[in-house]
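Pilot study result, target chain (149 residues):
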Amino acid sequence: MTTVAYEFDVIAWAQEQAALLRSGQFNLLDIEHIADEVEDVGKSEQREFENRMAVLLAHLLKWQYQSSHRGASWERTIKEQRKRIALRVKKTPSLQADLRDPEWWFGVWSDAVSRASEETRLTGFPEMCPWGCDQIMDTAFWPSDDVHG
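Predicted structure:
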């Protein structure tokens, strides 16, 4: 039985659980909540990955559809997101499975379109991502402002 309730103070609970693990007192561990927390770590990594990709895609859309507004800030954001996404995939190779998942792409693209629409007040973005993953991550790729072709 733990002395700190998970629901009362998760930080104190986590510190206590770590101490119990390190001291080998496995019979005192809060296994159910530990399992939940371990799962949450993975979900957090996935959410960050999805968010970074949606930000990158939204900025690529803005780059293409609002060429008159292009600037250093957008360029920095695109470069930074590409770098951070590549680093996440390198450090967490299991994220590559998301890049091959059409449902994941659908969700990320929907989020990107929503962001771009909100930020630009434009509508009529493509229903599906017009770029492949290799193109999106290519540091030399910058979408053309020819939105019709």
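One observation from the pilot: The chain has a mean pLDDT of 93. A full batch analysis is planned for the follow-on phase.
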